[in-house]
Amino acid sequence: MSGSEAAGTPGQDGEQRSDDQGVSAPSEQAEHPPEASLLQEHREEILEHAGPAEGVEDYSQYLLVADEVKAGYVPEVNILDGCTLTLREGEVVGIIGPNGAGKSTLIKTIFGLLPVRGGTITLRGGSIVNCSAHELVSNGVGYVPQSQNIFPSLTVEENLEMGVFLRPKVFQKRLAVVSELFPLLGERRKAKAGALSGGERQMVAMGRALMMEPSVLLLDEPTAGLSPIFQDEVFHRVREINATGVSVIMVEQNARRCLQVCDRGYVLDQGRNAYTGTGRELLDDPNVVELYLGTLAKAG
Ligand SMILES: Nc1ncnc2c1ncn2[C@@H]1O[C@H](COP(=O)(O)OP(=O)(O)OP(=O)(O)O)[C@@H](O)[C@H]1O
Ligand SMILES: [Mg+2]
């Protein structure tokens, strides 16, 4: 059994691609308006001066730290080129950035799905480098991948059962807790997960990750492909989950909304930290707005 199967997280084998979300192919760049290439140049300049987001001195002060992490898929090509991220107990931390920036790669590396080539990752001060996803789940880390995050042919209840198969005895107790957070899952427990709407499936995926009572929840684009109403619902649920004592790292394509909801945010670009701050600071930073939140930013 692979680490990802052990964690009860279908479909995330480190091979997923996300080319279907409006990524600009290099050949399209020339067609962008001049403002877009100016933005591109501006971005390059910023990245040249981007160092680690913050100096982390004492790992034990944090729930989770990824410190100057390097990782990638193909030998000698580092997609993450020295990324730093910290999570304190009780926080919701957001990760935003352009398509292909390495956001999913960072989450997958934290969850042990990609080998760490440089830097370190710690959980409660102890290294989790080389820990399998299976071990991380047992140590209180939950992960909801960007896509293929449910078992469509299984019922809602069976999906939730998969989430807790490492501790089957707690199934009923956790089912009650998770159904309280997501009443819809209780109501539709006998339905096939594949028959649910996109928003409902996202609830199943989050519910399954919560079955093991994680202290850290890693969410990769939980609102992707959802209608605005469901997006709001998901952001609201993330806050509710956080209020139950779960610290959250959330990658989001809905960058503005994510920064409104999170305590602190990281802007990743080309596998490096571009900007870091509280959600409010990033929303108020004209460079962040211009480069990463505006319509032109999407063209870059
Ligand atoms: N399985 C893979 N094999 C090889 N390269 C990959 C793989 N998955 C992602 N990549 C590459 O790694 C880079 C970062 O991808 P990643 O999926 O981490 O970006 P992202 O910031 O999550 O983007 P998106 O907003 O599109 O989800 C991209 O250049 C991508 O093509
Ligand atoms: Mg991604």
Structure, described:
With 300 residues, this protein is an alpha/beta fold. It has helices spanning 3-6, 34-49, 103-110, 133-138, 156-163, 171-181, 183-187, 198-210, 228-243, 255-261, 279-284, 286-293, 295-299; strands at residues 64-71, 80-87, 92-96, 118-123, 126-127, 141-144, 216-220, 247-251, 264-269, 272-278. The strands form two sheets. The protein has a six-stranded mixed sheet with strand order 6-7-8-3-9-10, sandwiched between helices. α5 (156-163) packs parallel to α8 (198-210). The longest helix has 16 residues, at 34-49. It starts with a helix and ends with a helix. The model is unreliable at 1-9 and 11-30 (pLDDT under 50). It binds adenosine-5'-triphosphate and magnesium ion. Magnesium ion is lined by residues 18, 103-104, 146, 221.
Mean pLDDT: 86
Number of E-type strands: 10
Instruction: Work out the strand percent.
Output: 15-25%
- The number of distinct helices, counting runs of at least 4 residues, comes to 13
Give a brief description:
By secondary structure, the chain is an alpha/beta fold.
Key phrases:
300 residues; alpha/beta; four-stranded antiparallel sheet; globular; disordered N terminus; binds adenosine-5'-triphosphate; binds magnesium ion
Summarize the SSE layout with pairings.
Elements: H1 3-6, H2 34-49, E1 64-71, E2 80-87, E3 92-96, H3 103-110, E4 118-123, E5 126-127, H4 133-138, E6 141-144, H5 156-163, H6 171-181, H7 183-187, H8 198-210, E7 216-220, H9 228-243, E8 247-251, H10 255-261, E9 264-269, E10 272-278, H11 279-284, H12 286-293, H13 295-299
Parallel strand pairs: 3-8, 3-9, 6-7, 7-8
Antiparallel strand pairs: 1-2, 1-4, 4-5, 9-10
Helix pairs in contact: 5-8
This protein binds adenosine-5'-triphosphate and magnesium ion (MG).
